[in-house]
Amino acid sequence: MSFDFDATVVGAGAVGLACGRALAARGLSVLVLEKEGAIGQGVSSRNSEVIHGGLYYPTGSLKARFCVEGRRTLYAFLDSHKVEYRKCGKLIVATESDEVGRLNAIFDQAGANDVEGVQRLTAAQALALEPELRVEAALLSPESGVFDSHGYMLALQGEIEDAGGSVVVSTPFERAEPLPGGGFRITAGGEGGAVLTTRLLVTAAGLQAQATAARIDGYQIMDIPAAHYGKGVYFRLTGRAPFDRLIYPPPIPGALGTHYRKDLGGQAVFGPDLTYVEAEDYSVDPAKAGEFAAYVRRFWPGLPDDALTPDYAGIRPKLHGPGEPQPDFQLHGAEQHGIAGLVVLFGIESPGLTSSLAIGEAVADMLQEHA
Predict the structure, then answer these.
(1) Using CA atoms, how far apart are residues 334 and 343, in angstroms rounded to an integer?
(2) Which one-letter DSSP state was computed for residue 133?
(3) Does 254 score more than 80 pLDDT?
(4) Helices (H), the chain
(5) CA–CA separation, 30 vs 321, rounded Å?
(6) Which of 116, 157, 221, 332 is paired with 74 by a 20 to 30 Å CA distance?
(7) What band does 321 get if pLDDT is binned at 50, 70 and 90?
(8) What does the pLDDT average to over 1-14?
(9) CA proximity to 24, closest of 8, 39, 11
(10) Angle 188-22-367 (CA atoms, 0-180°, nearest 5)?
(11) How far is residue 114's CA from residue 118's CA, in Å, rounded to a whole number?
(12) How far apart are alpha carbons 197 and 143 in whole angstroms?
């Protein structure tokens, strides 16, 4: 049977586009479907735009492997496509003596994850780098940075299109039916609505990952993990940015904690916090400014009064609820769901943006035997 496309990807965020790019690079005809009117409008556009070193994640996990591999290839990709970034480094800061032990554990984990260049710093050494810090001890991750995630996604789209593929927006995925001899019939709606066939199918649908999987005929509900929405809000500083490097506290359960970054425009942004919500709600409550200020003053006592203004919010597709351990990325192939030629991604939250190129290659490898 001839197919309209060799491979179709559902979702044109960073990870979906990276999957499309990896498949196109292997000579496949690729279609990427996106329900929004532009690429990268979901999780990929509402985050910290941080390039993570890969320090925290459990030994041997997909997050550890993909973050380190993805970060190494990401810098080279950004250079070759002239996408703006700043490799500013990151300080993980203990502000109390009882947090120093947690830094030691992170240092050991960074070594296990093969993260380059991580250094232990005394308070004096940290203050020499960032004089306005309140700090007992710190770790320096020189490979961390910030970048233009939208420029990155446009570059991914450009590679797909240069290889003859298509990225189609305003075209929501409605259903997929596995065909008897292999491949899928896909129904898409919206402005570009159509019925088409594809040999391979990847879903990288972010917050809609579970709902998308449920619209694939034959995908068992019991194979779809529970979805949780983790909302985080950000506040922007009025005035001069106090630090050049990223400043992170030790991680909190289920997330990396409210941190500081100087964005590419030179402004200081704090966030995200973590609150579980039942629906997509991107409002930012200005009343949270006081709570943020109290947290920020733990590592920056010089924060002026009334200097934080509400900025934006993001929601992450978490696979764990409050108080539950944070699971790994889930890339479900035929061995999980029994449908040949299909890879479904669940729980691609932080460090998904940093990991995206590596995730794309892993998905392409999973499908290689069918290509």
Answers:
(1) 7
(2) -
(3) no
(4) 14-25, 62-80, 100-112, 123-129, 149-162, 209-214, 289-296, 334-337, 352-367
(5) 35
(6) 332
(7) very high
(8) 96
(9) 8
(10) 75
(11) 10
(12) 42
| DSSP code string of 223-276 | GSPPPEEEEEEEEEESS--S-SSEEEPSPBTTB--SEEEE-TTS-EEEE---EE
Please give the Cα distance from 201 to 325 (Å, whole number): 30
Q: Do 313 and 231 contact (CB within 8 A), yes or no?
A: yes
**Do 341 and 369 touch, CB atoms closer than 8 A?**
no
Query: Rounded mean pLDDT of 9-22?
Result: 98
| Contact status, residue 237 vs residue 306, Cβ threshold 8 Å | no
Query: Phi/psi zone of residue 23: left (φ > 0), alpha (ψ -120 to 50 degrees), beta?
Result: alpha
Residue 218 per-residue DSSP state: T
Angstrom distance (rounded) from CA 43 to CA 141: 25
pLDDT confidence of residue 16 = 98
Distance between CA atoms of 337 and 358, rounded to whole angstroms?
22
CA distances from 78 to 43, 87, 162, 351 (A): 20, 11, 17, 17
The structure tokens 């041997």 sit at: 60
Token pair 């997929």 is found at 176
- Decide if 214 contacts 346 (C-beta within 8 A): no
Which residue, among 200, 143, 202, has the nearest Cα to 359 in the 3D structure?
Answer: 202
Structure-token pair, residue 13 = 């965020």
What is the share, in percent, of the chain residues with pLDDT greater than 90?
Answer: 93
Q: Which of 5, 11, 1 is nearest to 352 (CA)?
A: 11
Report residue 111: phi and psi, to 5°: -65, -45
What single letter denotes the amino acid at residue 252?
I
Question: What's the pLDDT at 41?
Answer: 96
Give per-residue burial for 45-57: e unless 16+ CB within 10 Å, then b.
bbbbbbbbbbbbb
Q: How many other CB atoms sit within 10 Å of the CB of residue 41?
A: 16
The maximal CA–CA distance of the chain, rounded, in angstroms, is 68
Three-state DSSP class for residue 287: helix
